[in-house]
Amino acid sequence: MAGVRECVRDGRECGGVKAAGRSVRGGLRDRLAASDPGLLRLTAGLRTVGAVALTLAVLAAAGFDVTHMVAGAMSAMVSTFAIRERQRGAQAVTLAVGLPVALVSVSLGAVLSERVVVGDLFFVVLIFCAVYGRRFGDRGTALGLIGFQVYFLSLFVGASTGTLPGLWAALAVAFACSALVRFAVVPVTPAGLLQRLRQAFRARLAQLVSAHLALLDAGPEDADKALADVREGNARLHETALMIQSRLEEGTPDESTARLVQRRIADAEIAAERLGLLLLSARSAQRADTLTLHLPGAPAPEVGRLPGPDDATALLRRDLLALRALVVRTGTGGTAVAQLRNRLLGYRDEENLPPASPAVRDVFRGIGETARAVMGLRVALEGPQDESDDSPATARSREELEAEDAAIDAGEEAEAAEQPKGLRRPTTRAAVQVSVGSALAIVGGELLSTNRWYWAVLTCWIVFINTASTGEILVKGYRRLLGTVFGVVAGILLAALVGRHTWTAFALVLLLIFAMFYTAPLSYTLMSFFVTAMLGLLYTLLHTYSWEVLVLRVEETALGAACGVFAAALVLPVRTDRRTSELLVTVLERLAEVTEAAVGQLSGGPAGDLLDKARALDQALGDLRSATQPLTHPVTPLRARRTTARYVVALLETCAYHARSLAATAELLPTHPSIAADPRLRGAAGRTVRNIVTIADRVADEEVTAAVDTGPSIASLL
């Protein structure tokens, strides 16, 4: 028993104690959860492959030919990925309405296939309506996507009025199979998805603690890599926290539970990020700048051995191992977990800190606060825990958490943002742009090929999806062209390998479809690669494959991307500079709101909905980060602008981190024994809020000449 206690004390696994061990199966599950939060990519891939496979099986059993099987497979794919609603009832309604939309679309495609001018004009009108439909939410987006893709499908398989009955049957089978797989074979409930996201958060939190361990042990030559791993761990943890935030409303039984989970997720994220900063400061000759944790590529500060007694590093390593074990064992109980928790929570009291330098003692305090956040997360996610093994420090932490939980209220409803109207509305502007670009793509595409001009239109359509500026469209078009070129090479090799073996080709198509949906959120280039490789196999199945066809695919893709960029640049353009400036103003406004509300509460003012304000700041910052991708892309020739954009985003991420910490501290005010309101803080911190507002005004209007105030630090003013 003494050996078991020693193993638990050191935070290591004891193979002879089943209750404390983690199976290989559990470790693989955690790694999968961390790499694919919520298993969203895996679910999307399995659903689509399942729907396509079931459709092919039914159509083959019914005696349909290869052309109708290809049409059914593509329809099943479209009807699966187009639907994005979160509630199952809404998904069922959209799927039911989508079938008649698909039948009308394929019928018009077949009827108009012999009327070139009328067909082209209708295609442009359809594209406009499909993009404009995004203003009506997820259902409008899905129905527009189904209408466009099925019309494209009719062109791809060469639909005619004589083949319509078979195509109608294939589409009906595809939608039915998609519904069966969605609701019965691979079902996803909001509560189940949220549970998987929580598991992913814990797994990524454990990975971040592992990165802290590597930073603790890193030598001077490994410091940059260790710091980069900590940066990546912070970013991945924050990404998962935002995903959980977006799913709380549907996945929790009531608003109170949602706010509790939101609070505990925020606590754990802030505590883990602060722990990394404290550890970096302890290893540096001078206190580390918070910006170091957020600026990609920034060199690590010069690191050396930890100051203080020689056993400080060994103690920190032991306790970081124990903290990681506490995180990964969140779903289990027992004496082993209780002993780990009690020891780490003891570091919240000064008398329990080991003898070391002030910087190292701060790291031990950080470990204690992170352990408290992990315990709070466990209580929020799993309910009341066994308190029989609590130490006095643990009991006190538990009382603090219970008091905080009781103080959480429903908060206030967010005000609806004023939406632009007319051509300023994003959906209207995008619809006009993509219609003009598609018209150009039709003309140019038919000059390249009178039979397969629609590939240019498809590319023009796709580069406008989820983009909002000319720069974003340019980057997306470049990535699609790059993926297409490499996909053509893969398609040639696969077509040569498959030959005339129909079912081998269909099996490879299923594999490529899964890879396409699994990699889509990670890399648009990879997704384009798998799409093009799959098309090579489909052409083989339709007996229309040739080297010339795949080369034409590249040419049409380049033409479509060029038409999309041309339309975005000349028709109601949104310049990248203008969009980033608008989003920068939004981020600064959100930052000012969070800071002012938190300072007000810490000054004795009324309680507000601080965490929701902090998450609104995070969402605005995420939008800005996406909008700056054209400026930070590796191929951009403007190196100075790339460096500036990365630096500004890193600065704002640092500000957002401090704002989240300030908001979390302010929400502790009613219950935490060591935090008290101080009316002097409002005046001392008012300069900070005014400066943020001044910067936002100057970004929004270059005519503003107000200066940024400087003065003594807040600490000196207090």
TrEMBL record:
Keywords from the named record: Cell membrane, Membrane, Transmembrane, Transmembrane helix
Main location, first listed in the record: membrane
Transmembrane feature ranges: 39-60, 66-83, 90-110, 116-133, 140-161, 167-194, 430-448, 454-474, 481-497, 503-520, 527-545, 557-574
Bias kind Acidic residues: ranges: 401-416
GO CC aspect terms: plasma membrane
Domain (Integral membrane bound transporter) ranges: 441-566
Segments for region (Disordered): 381-424
Topology with respect to the bilayer: Multi-pass membrane protein
Localization in the cell: Cell membrane
InterPro entries: Memb_transporter_dom
Family under the similarity heading: Belongs to the YccS/YhfK family.
Protein name: Membrane protein
Organism of provenance: Streptomyces griseoflavus Tu4000
